[in-house]
Amino acid sequence: MTRFNTILFDYGNTLVHTVSLVDAAMTVFGSVKGKMLGQSVEAQIQQLYHKDQCHQPDWKTVWQQACKDAELVYSDDVVFRHLTEFVEQSSLVPKTHDMLRQLKGAGVKMGLLSNVTGPADVFQNDLINKGIAGYFDTVLWSSAVGTRKPAPSFFTKALQMLSADTHQTLMVGDSELADVYGAKQVGVTTLKVSHSRSGNSQADHHCTYSNLADYVFELTR
């Protein structure tokens, strides 16, 4: 069995459990306008999840439309308040700190690749605030790069930045499309994480959140 010396991690619902954008918006802007804002943002983001979507749209255009739908006046502050609440309500998957610390100590190179529609600084600050930013050798947010998973170029950029061998690299994520399909396009082995191991998946490996750390350790020892 191949022992992997490089791991690419997804972020949302892989290393952190996230809340809905609707819930976060309702906390900040109230139950009526917040719900409308969050639903509009989520609907626009959901439309991006198909195999041919490589371009990451400008986050401002997404929130401008959402503010129009919710009858709110757009400003960058609306976006920052919404997304700051969103990331603050998210929580690390149990054992994430220990897993990343041990992988780092073992010399495993790690990258983080995440599709985000919003200012990259908000999400980077979340990594810092959760105490895990220092574990990663490279971090790619789609809103900063301009492309998004499952685009092959998104993965190859990370591989190049890490000087990684494709055949010794593992992609860990929760999305069948963005993470599994995307990584397989460039020949990277995949590990899909979910609440249950049941269900169809094209991933090479599959684990639950409760045994993610143990499964990753087994593949890197």
Largest sheet: 6 strands, parallel
Structural class: alpha/beta
| CATH second-level architecture of the largest domain | 3-Layer(aba) Sandwich
Q: Report the radius of gyration as a whole number of Å.
A: 17 Å
CATH superfamily of the largest domain: HAD superfamily/HAD-like
Count of beta strands:
8
N to C succession of SSEs: EEHHHHEHEHEHHEHEEH
Main-sheet strand order equals 5-4-1-6-7-8
Mean pLDDT: 97
Separation, N- and C-terminal Cα atoms = 11 Å
| SS summary, helix count | 10
Shape: globular
Model description:
The protein folds into 2 domains: 142 residues, HAD superfamily/HAD-like (Rossmann fold); 69 residues. It contains 10 helices and 8 strands. Strands 5-4-1-6-7-8 form a 6-stranded parallel sheet. A two-stranded antiparallel sheet has the order 2-3. Helix 1 runs antiparallel to helix 2 and helix 1 packs across helix 4. The longest helix has 14 residues. The N and C termini lie close together (11 Å). The relative contact order is 0.18. One of its GO terms (biological process) is small molecule metabolic process. Keywords: Hydrolase, Magnesium, Metal-binding.
Key structural traits:
2 domains, 15% strand, Rossmann fold, 8 strands, alpha/beta, 47% helix, six-stranded parallel beta sheet, 221 residues
